[in-house]
Design a protein that fits this description.
Layout: H1 3-20, H2 33-36, H3 39-45, E1 68-73, E2 77-84, E3 87-94, E4 99-106, E5 108-110, E6 120-126, E7 129-135, E8 141-147, E9 150-156, E10 159-163, H4 178-203, H5 208-211, H6 218-239, H7 247-258, H8 265-271, H9 276-304, H10 313-337, H11 339-373, H12 377-397, H13 402-413, H14 417-427, H15 435-477
Antiparallel strand pairs: 1-2, 1-10, 2-3, 3-4, 5-6, 6-7, 7-8, 8-9
């Protein structure tokens, strides 16, 4: 490993990190159009009320979310908890009767004993009626209405649109610490650098001939793209309806199956006997198409889950380009036109990228281990079923060649956690109260998938040994 090669690789990764700092245009404005047109906002702010209705009609043309701690809707009600001055209030709109039984009613707050696990409770009392709203750190919300001391209505699993930490209303885990913020920023930049380094090191393995290999196999290409880009999201939409999943877990699972092309797929596939050219071409093709497929998948998901404020397609494409396509393209260009330099960079690039990834994995695991272990049966079941179904789907669609079958199984089941974390970090300004739970779900997904693929890896490696022994026997007979 020459010093020059190491210096060039370091320079490229630093340049990549700087490029990744280009503004992503995430939805930083809580009062932007996408938020103002959300269904629950319209219900609370603009829905008409019959003239003969006793409750007061809503006259405000719009509602700013900057003072809103919680906003959700269920089958019957839309609920908003907000702050005005130093007081917390609640609005409740009955969608069935088109009336507003509560408008700017003060609420008492029961703080969470443990902000990381326990819910925060808001209680409004009017004569003999009591309205109780709860929100957990994972986004699980519940509305219970008591009349005369008896439960008249109760529903959980609401569509949460805003779950923001506002001082005096929603629980603040701890005040902003400049040192903590600096550490967080350093880690985020380090994670971006790791993703850039991984994609660059992968690109060094392939030339143009390698990355277009799959394009010359139309049948295999169609089956591969269907398996990775279409089958997994369809399966994912089915599993997120498993009862018991929290808002954070649904969003986390959705983010994972939206993001294909995990950087470690080529390494795992090669070790299990995957077809080298197929691996490189598939990885490059998936990463290239992700500029289109990730935004399209996100838009489709937004129709199922309107409370989830995904970024616009252009902004997602911008993130994918700088996080994946650019570093991988640089690696391929070097391998194509400066092969000697690419060979010199290959070993240090692989080692540095692997070390960076290992450190990220260790830090994330240490920080989130307790939450991952307590994710719940529903989360383990949903992720496990999706991972197993994806693995089987890739294996069956991989064709008769054991090498392509193995590689497609890994590419289908293993999703890009790095890209998912990047998207989630930037894309949910109105759900900061549950963002930690989303990140925990992403890590849980990656770990569960790794565990699910262990038996498959053992089987494929054994198959390689059996095939090798068979070839030796055949040659000896000849």
């Amino acid at each position: 490993m020459s010093f020059g090669a190491l210096a060039i690789f370091t320079l490229l990764t630093i340049v990549g990190l700087n490029l990744l700092e280009i503004p992503s245009f995430a939805i930083a404005n809580p009062d932007s159009a996408i938020n103002q047109t959300s269904h629950a906002h319209e219900l609370i702010a603009q829905s008409p009320v019959p003239h003969d209705a006793q409750p007061t009609a809503i006259s405000a043309p719009s509602i700013s979310t900057s003072d809103t701690a919680l906003l959700f809707q269920n089958d019957r009600y839309a609920v908003r908890v907000f702050k005005e001055g130093e007081q917390a209030y609640i609005n409740i709109y009955d969608k069935t009767k088109q009336v507003q039984p509560l408008q700017k009613v003060p609420v008492s707050i029961t703080r969470a004993g443990n902000p990381k696990k326990d819910p925060t409770k808001y209680v409004a009392t009017i004569v003999d009626q009591q309205y109780i709203v709860t929100i957990s750190p994972l986004g699980a919300s519940d509305l219970t209405i008591f009349k005369g001391g008896r439960i008249a209505y109760q529903q959980g699993s609401n569509q949460v649109e805003v779950a923001r930490k506002i001082s005096g209303i929603s629980e603040q885990a701890e005040p902003i610490n400049p040192t903590r913020e600096l550490v967080r920023k350093i880690f985020v930049n380090y994670a971006k650098l790791t993703l850039f380094a991984l994609m660059f090191s992968m690109g060094l393995h392939w030339t143009f001939r390698d990355v277009v290999w799959l394009w010359q196999q139309p049948s295999l290409l169609v089956r591969s793209l269907f398996s990775v880009l279409i089958a997994v999201p369809i399966l994912g939409v089915l599993v997120v309806f498993i009862p018991g999943l929290t808002v954070a877990q649904r969003i986390g699972i959705g983010a994972m199956f939206t993001c294909p092309g995990a950087p470690m797929i080529p390494v795992k596939s090669l070790k299990a006997g995957g077809h080298p050219q197929f691996i490189g071409s598939l990885q490059f093709t998936i990463s290239l198409l992700a500029i289109i497929t990730v935004p399209v998948t996100a838009l489709i998901l937004a129709q199922f889950f309107p409370n989830q404020a995904w970024l616009s397609p252009q902004e997602i494409a911008n993130q994918i380009f700088f996080a994946q396509i650019l570093p991988m393209g640089l690696g391929v260009l070097l391998a194509q036109y400066v092969p000697k330099l690419a060979d010199e960079l290959l070993e240090p690039a692989n080692k540095i990228a692997s070390l960076l990834l290992l450190l990220v994995a260790i830090v994330l695991l240490v920080v989130t281990l307790d939450d991952v272990l307590n994710a719940g049966v529903a989360a383990y079941l949903a992720i496990g079923l999706l991972s197993l179904a994806s693995l089987v789907c890739g294996h069956l669609l991989g064709g008769p060649d054991p090498g392509t079958r193995t590689a497609l199984a890994y590419a289908t089941s293993t999703r890009n956690a790095g890209l998912a974390i990047l998207l989630v970090t930037l894309n949910f300004p109105n759900l900061d109260y549950v963002k930690g739970g989303i990140i925990n779900t992403l890590i849980t997904y990656a770990l569960v998938t790794a565990i699910v693929t262990i038996p498959y890896t053992i089987w494929r490696k054994r198959s390689l040994v059996v095939e090798a022994l068979g070839m030796i026997v055949n040659e000896s007979n000849l």
